[in-house]
Write a structure and sequence with these properties.
alpha/beta; 215 residues
Length: 215
Amino acid sequence: MDFIAIDFETANANRSSACSLGLVEVKDGAVVSERSWLIDPGQPFDYRNIQIHGITESMVQGMPTFHELWPELQPLLDGKHIVAHNASFDMSVLRYCLDRASIEYPSFHYYCTYLLSKKMLNWLPSHKLNVLTEWYGIPLHHHDALDDARACAQVLLHLIQQEEQTSAERLSLDLGCKIGLIYPGGYKPFSAPAKKKTKAAKTKVVPAAKNFISG
């Protein structure tokens, strides 16, 4: 049960404006390392983004650009199983940052806890990260990149445990999901099969989770 959970925050609506990254490494179902970085996006900060994550332009002055940080990040991602909550956003931030820096894409498979939770916890009214952490009893300082990555890792561990699976890969395949892939020259999105329409929907009642998996 090895994977890397990541979360990006951006300075503005441009996906190439990464200003923060959190990374949590899980091995054998336990968190073994955590890293976070502030990134100089080389772009203006939008007030709306600052309101969300609290990072300002002055806070990233003197911090590395994505291009400068990439040699440190690449070995942490290349060839690994990467997970993010709403991975379509985080993977697009990574791709746009790589494109802007004219850097070749790495190779890795990736997974989305947002889509997995929608598939598995379909009785919840929302599958936002803060809703899931409340459901599972996971502490969260929302929109702090490291804390979001940490929470994402714990959510995935819960989902894997719930289905008595051994990995994100086995869980995704058994649910009929298509595993995401980034590779030099392109990418394939993580996707979950559409819900089949039924004449009468049945409500599944499951007791709320009290404890979260420690690591």
